[in-house]
């Protein structure tokens, strides 16, 4: 038996949802550039779940279904109030809230195709309410109900802040949602597929995926990038900081990728947005620092900035609390996880690889009194 550390380069599934070929990302054959410039998040959700773009009626129906399913049980809010909310990470809270939500869903264990489609809508709709309700309860405020007629992106900001966002704010969130929606067999998506390949239910698959996304080598990197920028503080400190980290063999968050070698095609869209928003808000230093770090790491190590790198300064300009960055990633990635879960169910086989045993052999049991 031979092993590939971290399964690098191993092709573990077939998918019709997204692909990364020669550092180009496509969703169902549409380039991420095309979608980021033109599509609403709702269109992308439809695309990932149905493998085609919706017509006007289909899109309107999906928007309506999402809006109608955004309300969350009061038990979720009571649960947020039942522990020391300031001491927990929102990703931990999201993981538990989604698992809890499954207990309120009478169809949670109904594995029929129709029930799974209904749960898909419910999960995608409710995640925005769960993330925003958590944030508001933590701030000592009441959760806000979604507003009819607003897009998913706008409703997220509305439920978070209680104000209808500007066009630019809505566009920034919509673009971020489109860019984060799916990414082939990344760690959290793989986790969700492994989970549901046992024929476990969709809530379990999504809860498992949230758990995998939480780590700083994956989705947790966006928050870590902002923490790094805050630690650096000013543009002139950026290069000395990064050089010291590199000398100590520490990783620079938001840089590097398992698959992309020349560049993450999503990063340029977030970089452009970061430049625009930081300049609009007089926060240029966050962009300047980021660019200096990106250029240095690219030149020194040949590593590209990934999707998490510039999203940090974008969300900072929108006044979003730093520990909500990864839940926002999850909110978008729900669409991809759900698409992969449905695809796994369609043609399922248990995922069960092998491990090469490298431990001691031929051991003899020794009585506990003699150890
Ligand atoms: C949405 C996403 O999940 S995107 C990824 C988000 N994660 C991050 O931004 C965290 C920082 N980046 C990393 O840790 C890595 O680049 C990963 C986890 C994304 C990919 O890692 P892998 O493909 O396993 O690469 P691995 O960790 O083995 O690193 C290979 C080499 O590049 C170096 N390297 C990789 N990433 C970085 C980094 N961010 N900063 C400095 N060096 C790095 C490693 O130190 C290693 O160097 P060496 O060969 O001299 O020892
Ligand atoms: O694909 C990966 O390994 C990580 C990533 O960029 C993502 O999930 O968006």
TrEMBL record:
Pathway entry: Carbohydrate metabolism; tricarboxylic acid cycle
Keywords, in A-Z order: Acyltransferase, Transferase, Tricarboxylic acid cycle
UniProt-listed InterPro entries: 2-MeCitrate/Citrate_synth_II, Citrate_synth-like_lrg_a-sub, Citrate_synth-like_sm_a-sub, Citrate_synthase, Citrate_synthase_bac-typ, Citrate_synthase_sf
Record has Hydrolase as a keyword: no
Keyword Acyltransferase part of the UniProt annotation: yes
SUPFAM superfamilies documented for this protein: Citrate synthase
Family classification: Belongs to the citrate synthase family.
GO molecular function: citrate synthase activity
Reaction(s) the record says it catalyses: oxaloacetate + acetyl-CoA + H2O = citrate + CoA + H(+)
NCBIfam families referenced in this protein's UniProt entry, alphabetically: cit_synth_II, PRK14034.1, PRK14035.1
Stated name of the protein: Citrate synthase
């Amino acid at each position: 038996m031979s092993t590939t550390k971290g399964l690098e380069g191993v092709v573990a599934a077939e998918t019709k949802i997204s692909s990364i070929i020669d550092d180009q990302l496509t969703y169902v054959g549409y380039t991420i550039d095309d979608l980021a410039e033109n599509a609403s998040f709702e269109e992308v959700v439809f695309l990932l779940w149905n493998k085609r773009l919706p017509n006007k009626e289909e899109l309107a129906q999906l928007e309506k279904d999402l809006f109608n399913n955004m309300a969350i049980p009061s038990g979720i809010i009571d649960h947020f109030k039942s522990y020391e909310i300031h001491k927990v990470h929102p990703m931990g809270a999201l993981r538990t809230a989604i698992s809890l939500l499954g207990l309120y869903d009478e169809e949670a264990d109904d594995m029929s195709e129709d029930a799974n489609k209904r749960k898909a809508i419910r999960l995608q709709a409710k995640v925005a309410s769960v993330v925003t309700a958590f944030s508001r309860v933590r701030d000592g405020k009441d959760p806000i109900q979604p507003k009819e007629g607003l897009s998913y992106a706008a409703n997220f900001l509305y439920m978070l802040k209680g104000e209808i966002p500007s066009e630019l704010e809505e566009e920034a969130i919509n673009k971020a949602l489109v860019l984060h929606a799916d990414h082939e067999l990344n760690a959290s998506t793989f986790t969700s597929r492994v989970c549901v390949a046992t024929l476990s239910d969709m809530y379990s698959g999504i809860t498992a995926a949230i758990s995998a996304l939480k780590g700083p080598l994956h989705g947790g990197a966006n928050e870590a990038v902002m923490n790094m920028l805050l630690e650096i503080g000013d543009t002139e400190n950026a290069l000395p900081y990064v050089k010291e980290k590199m000398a100590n063999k520490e990783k620079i968050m938001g840089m590097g990728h398992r698959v992309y070698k020349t560049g993450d095609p999503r990063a340029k869209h977030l970089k452009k947005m970061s430049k625009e928003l930081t300049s609009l808000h007089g926060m240029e230093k966050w962009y300047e620092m980021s660019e200096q770090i990106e250029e240095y790491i690219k030149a020194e190590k040949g590593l590209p900035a990934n999707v998490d790198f510039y999203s940090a300064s974008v969300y900072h300009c929108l006044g979003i609390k730093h520990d909500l960055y990864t839940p926002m990633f999850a909110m978008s990635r729900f669409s991809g996880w759900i698409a992969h879960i449905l695809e796994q169910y369609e043609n399922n086989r248990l995922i069960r690889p092998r491990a090469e045993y490298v431990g001691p052999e031929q051991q003899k049991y020794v009585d506990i009194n003699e150890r």
